[in-house]
Amino acid sequence: MNSYIFLENAHFFAYHGIGKQERQVGNEFIVNLKMTVNISRSGTTDDIKDTVSYAEVFDVIKSEMNIPSKLLEHVCIRIIKQLFLNFKQIEAVDLKLVKRNPPMGGDLDGAGVQIQCNRSEILN
To answer: Which domain holds residue 71?
Structure first.
């Protein structure tokens, strides 16, 4: 059985970007996260200790989003590492981080990074 826990369109205001202006003024970011987690035990026990709390996952993401970085890739890897370190039940992660209205002189809703990986690819 494949099972996932996810956060969809989590909005953050943060200070990530190559330009000094971006790190001073900030921008809106959207995070979409899908985590592979075996939920068969929690589906039977109805106990939060047998699964991954998406509220706690949100707090991890929020904490990492509050640390300014030049590259979105850096932010993503930090988030993923913390998720794997804090939640042993997470087997794999699909994380998408989008910067809304990036300052690049073009008309687009957002630009970003998406990373799909499993625990061994990040922690080993």
So the answer is: 4-123
Query: In terms of Cα–Cα distance, which of 52, 48, 13 is closest to 30?
Result: 13
List, for residues 7-36, the tens digit of each pLDDT value.
999 999 999 999 888 888 999 999 999 999
Task: Give the global pTM.
Answer: 0.93
Pick the catalytic residue from 70, 88, 96, 99: 99
Examine the residue annotation and report whether 88 is marked as an active-site residue of this protein: no
What CATH number has the domain bearing residue 25? 3.30.1130.10
The number of distinct structural domains making up the chain is 1
Asked if 100 contacts 46 with a C-beta cutoff of 8 angstroms, the reply is no
